[in-house]
Amino acid sequence: MNGRFSEQVMTEAMRDVAGILGVPCGDAQLLRLTNNAVFALPSSGVVIRIARTHRLRDRVPKVIRLARWFADIDAPTVRLAPGIEQPIEVGTLVASVWQYVPPGSPAPAVEDLGLVLREFHALDVSPISLPAWDPIDDARRRLAEADGLHGSDRDFLMRWCDRLEPRVTALNQRTERSLIHGDAHVGNLLMEPSGRTVMCDFDATCVGPWQVDLAAVAVGEHRFGRTGAHETLAVAYGYDVTSDPSWALLREARELKMIAAAVPLLATSEEIAAEFGRRLRTVRENDHGTPWTAFADLITTKKPGKLQLEAGRRSGK
């Protein structure tokens, strides 16, 4: 499939950004092609991250401001590439540039996620203005940019949003505001050469109930048919989110996010469109037995050369 956010379009944009930076991109590796196209340029020591939806491009400046604050307080987070004026615009697309962290062994694990989340949640609420946790607004904005979304599917998703919205509002009002990552899974961890585990991908970072960050692994274990990860996270963090009084809402909100995330990309990949339809069907039919497949695992590239997808590193969506 082709589209405004196809792999070809994103690759051309990456090359434009590399040209602006004055760095070579012959060894570029495509690390992720979901809501963002993420390219590693190992020889240049940078990662280029390009938003794949215009509706959410306002997140990029927010993420850059947040990353600068994280660096100031030495938070357990990946760093922006130094000395670069950001964000970088190429046509209608917008990009950010980060320090490249080479993959190491062992790779970060669920236990590392629990420990780094405890450190992350202990940070003060950011002095930078951040939105409240609002998975409903996020889903609606994606639905507004929905090439290839059938009317009946759109209607179902909108009704789902309408049903969850007052419950999300009530939860925000009755819980203490904490800094939350918003998409906390092992695929958003990196291990620095020093051995420190750091988090990346701050698109969804906001303030709200910290339990949100523990829901991703629990829901992922259930929907992707994995076992053991949630228990490991609960032990490492010191809390079992499935025992929380708000667990049912947290689960639904996470599932909505995991389905709506694909909406802007339906026209770019037949595999993503098929998985989107499968996920939506299981929710409609209250089917908790059919496993989902991670979107990143569905995408392959067939072009020769060094540009290749390392989808196995990203398994949270």
Tag the structure with descriptive keywords.
alpha+beta; two-stranded antiparallel sheet; single chain; 9 strands; five-stranded antiparallel β-sheet; Aminoglycoside 3'-phosphotransferase, Chain: A, domain 2
Describe this structure in words.
The protein is globular. 41% of the residues are buried. It contains ten helices and nine strands. Helix 6 packs across helix 8 (247-260). Helices cover 41% and strands 12% of the residues. The protein is α+β, with helices and mostly antiparallel strands and 317 residues long.
- The shape, in one word, is globular
The largest pleated sheet is described as: 5 strands, antiparallel
Count of distinct strands: 9
Q: Assign the structural class, choosing from mainly alpha, mainly beta, alpha/beta, alpha+beta, or little secondary structure.
A: alpha+beta
Q: What is the N-to-C succession of helices and strands?
A: HEEEHEEHHHEEEEHHHHH
Q: Which percent range describes the beta-strand content? A: 5-15%
Question: Which architecture does the CATH hierarchy give at level 2?
Answer: Alpha-Beta Complex
- Mean pLDDT, as a whole number? 89
Radius of gyration: 19 Å
Query: Taking strands numbered 1, 2, ... along the chain, how are they ordered across the largest sheet?
Result: 1-2-3-5-4
